[in-house]
Write a structure and sequence with these properties.
The chain has about 190 residues and is of the alpha+beta class. It has two domains: about 5-125 and about 165-185, MM3350-like (Structural Genomics Hypothetical 15.5 Kd Protein In mrcA-pckA Intergenic Region, Chain A); about 130-165, no CATH class. About 30% of the residues lie in helices and about 25% in strands. It is built from five helices and eight strands, in the order E-E-H-E-E-E-H-E-E-E-H-H-H. The longest helix is centred in the last third of the chain and has 15 residues, at about 170-185. The radius of gyration is 18 Å and the shape is globular.
């Protein structure tokens, strides 16, 4: 088993929001989705998909008649191969359209001292869920930056307190990813 080091960057957002993780190359895409949900953190209550070239993986809906392949039957290594070694797309929340670019920066043997998946680098704070995509997020940041804005108090209350886009809760995010690693740890026989 090799360990891949993908870097997931949320596109078109300032300041930059990125997460570097270490995961087994054989990790299924449905599990990679859960790792990204924990690392950002998103709340995992919207539709999502991975894209590599013309191939898409997610949760197929037989009533929709879509050509999306089941994410539970594909691995990160297969998606990297389908992308020709280039970037993979990850779209979360088809309404807000949070598009992530995933590039695999390295491939290494596993380190027996670590559990995988593992969050290794956190930069920038992820926009809140249901903020309204990029335009809504920009408006949200403007409102919070201006205490005189008539919507400031209401927006602050909606989020649950202050929000600094430059300061992610890195320790909490690492812990949430570690919880997945412990949950998925292979059992000794």
């Amino acid at each position: 088993m090799s360990v891949l080091r993908p870097c997931a960057t949320l596109e078109d957002i300032e300041p930059t929001v990125l997460r570097r993780i270490e995961v087994p190359g054989a990790m299924r895409l449905d599990r990679l989705h859960l790792v990204l949900q924990a690392a950002m953190p998103w709340q995992n209550y919207h539709l999502w998909e991975f894209q590599a070239g013309d191939t898409r993986w997610g949760l197929p809906d037989p009533d929709y008649g879509d050509d999306i392949r089941p994410a539970a039957k594909a691995t990160l290594a297969e998606a990297v191969e389908a992308a020709g070694g280039g970037a993979i797309g990850y779209l979360y929340d088809f309404g807000d359209s949070w598009q992530h670019r995933i590039t695999v920066e390295d491939r290494t043997p596993p380190d027996p001292r670590h559990l995988y998946p593992r969050l290794t680098d956190v930069e920038g704070r992820c926009p809140p869920e249901d903020v309204g995509g990029i335009p809504g997020y920009e408006r949200y940041i403007d409102i919070l930056a201006d205490p005189k804005n008539p919507q400031h108090a209401e927006t602050l209350e909606w989020h649950g307190g202050p929000f600094d886009p430059n300061v992610p809760p890195a320790d909490e995010l690492r812990l949430d990813v570690l919880k997945l690693a412990k949950k998925w740890k292979p059992r000794a026989r």
